[in-house]
Amino acid sequence: MTVYAYADGPLGEMLLVGEESADGGGTALASLSVPGQKGGAVVGDGWRHAPEAFTGVTAQLRDYFAGRLTRFDLQYADTGTDFQRRVWRALEDIPYGTTVTYGEIAARVGAPGAGVRAVGTAIGRNPLLVVRPCHRVIGADGALRGYAGGLERKERLLGLEGALVR
């Protein structure tokens, strides 16, 4: 069953969406979106409001925004294509407080050169803002490029982490 909750934070009220496991093994986070996000989740018919399903997620978000957490340890729902999942795993390996370019991610997933555009598209479809740190990816020229939550939020997250934009 799909469950959802809201969490307040410095980026606005975030919508958390998860899938409860049939065997009672908890809730896998499927989406974390912010107000006005391009392609963000919208509460669907039949979804159950279940803040209790997200206590671990909200605790980790609180610690991240307070500067006490540098890497999330959460159960994620398995979504996306094989290529998207490879790109998203590469995002999870970007250390806190650092940035990499789209080209560097493309090379890490075996798609250099023309694959940079495909990597950018996969990053743009990341359903887990903040916890899967797509905000740490910047342009080859060091400029902030695309962020589904808006460039202002991307800059804010990088500032929170003390990341120097090249």
From TrEMBL:
Involved in the cellular defense against the biological effects of O6-methylguanine (O6-MeG) and O4-methylthymine (O4-MeT) in DNA. Repairs the methylated nucleobase in DNA by stoichiometrically transferring the methyl group to a cysteine residue in the enzyme. This is a suicide reaction: the enzyme is irreversibly inactivated. It comes from the Bacteria. It is found in: Cytoplasm. Residues 3-75 form the Methylguanine DNA methyltransferase ribonuclease-like domain. Its EC number is 2.1.1.63. GO terms for biological process: DNA alkylation repair; methylation. Transmembrane segments: none annotated. One of its GO terms (cellular component) is cytoplasm. The active site is at C134 (nucleophile). It comes from Streptomyces lavendofoliae. It catalyses: a 6-O-methyl-2'-deoxyguanosine in DNA + L-cysteinyl-[protein] = S-methyl-L-cysteinyl-[protein] + a 2'-deoxyguanosine in DNA; a 4-O-methyl-thymidine in DNA + L-cysteinyl-[protein] = a thymidine in DNA + S-methyl-L-cysteinyl-[protein]. CDD domains: ATase (cd06445). Belongs to the MGMT family. Coiled coil: none annotated. HAMAP family: OGT. InterPro entries: MethylDNA_cys_MeTrfase_DNA-bd, MethylDNA_cys_MeTrfase_DNAb, MethylG_MeTrfase_N, MGMT, MGMT_N_sf, WH-like_DNA-bd_sf. The lineage of its organism: Bacteria, Bacillati, Actinomycetota, Actinomycetes, Kitasatosporales. GO terms for molecular function: methylated-DNA-[protein]-cysteine S-methyltransferase activity. Keywords: Cytoplasm, DNA damage, DNA repair, Methyltransferase, Transferase. This is Methylated-DNA--protein-cysteine methyltransferase. SUPFAM superfamilies: Methylated DNA-protein cysteine methyltransferase domain (SSF53155), Methylated DNA-protein cysteine methyltransferase, C-terminal domain (SSF46767). Residues 82-163 form the Methylated-DNA-[protein]-cysteine S-methyltransferase DNA binding domain. Its main location: cytoplasm. This enzyme catalyzes only one turnover and therefore is not strictly catalytic. According to one definition, an enzyme is a biocatalyst that acts repeatedly and over many reaction cycles.
